[in-house]
TrEMBL record:
Pfam families in the record: Nitrate_red_del
Listed GO MF terms: metallochaperone activity; unfolded protein binding
Alphabetical GO biological process terms: chaperone-mediated protein complex assembly; nitrate assimilation
Gene coding for it: narJ
UniProt-listed InterPro entries: DMSO/NO3_reduct_chaperone, NO3_reductase_chaperone_NarJ, TorD-like_sf
Renumbered residue ranges of the record's region Disordered: 193-225
UniProt protein name: Nitrate reductase molybdenum cofactor assembly chaperone
Keyword terms, alphabetized: Nitrate assimilation
Residue spans of biased composition, Basic and acidic residues class: 213-225
Amino acid sequence: MSNTLRALSVLLAYPTEGLREAVADIGSVLVDEGLVSARERADLWPLLAELRNDDLYDLQERYVELFDRSRSLTLNLFEHVHGESRDRGQAMVDLAALYERGGLTMTANELPDYLPLLLEYASTRPIGEARQLLTDIAPIVAALRERLVARGSTYAGVFGALLVLSGSANAEPVELAEPRDIDADWAEDPVAFGPEAAPGCSSDRTMSRIRAARRDARSEETNHV
């Protein structure tokens, strides 16, 4: 299960040129390890095709729109059940301690409940422990999959595969906060450049490139550690 979990973790990461180059290897892992059935793989192929063929900045914009600017789809799992309450803080402390006991070192800019990080940790554990971790988060994963399906997003396939790996393909989705209400909290004001810029001027591509530069810089720092 370890290679499959790593592959799914990578698919949920911010799109980079490195991810594009790894698409063929990811597809091979999903086939060779055989833990994801042909049906689930069929739901994943459209995402792999997009990552391989679409313009990188378009991929990054879509990712930001889904997971960074939409709180209802944030990949920080505890946000969906604890919000900003103290319960979330304690849950993250407990999860960070679990990672530490398992030998996973987090970087300063990572939150323990970030789904790709949790999957990376699960990929290092014995199969029974890994499956239990996936089972524990299955209700949240099921709810996120429903929301992604409703948006017509190809990322839904990753969440469907995670449910199958957890043995909880029919998990009842946890009741999350209403998307419209919590998304409004995260809405960003339009950005205009220059004294004569029109109100509401779109800057999504510019913001995506800035975010990309920051993420790539953080990734570079991590690689040199």
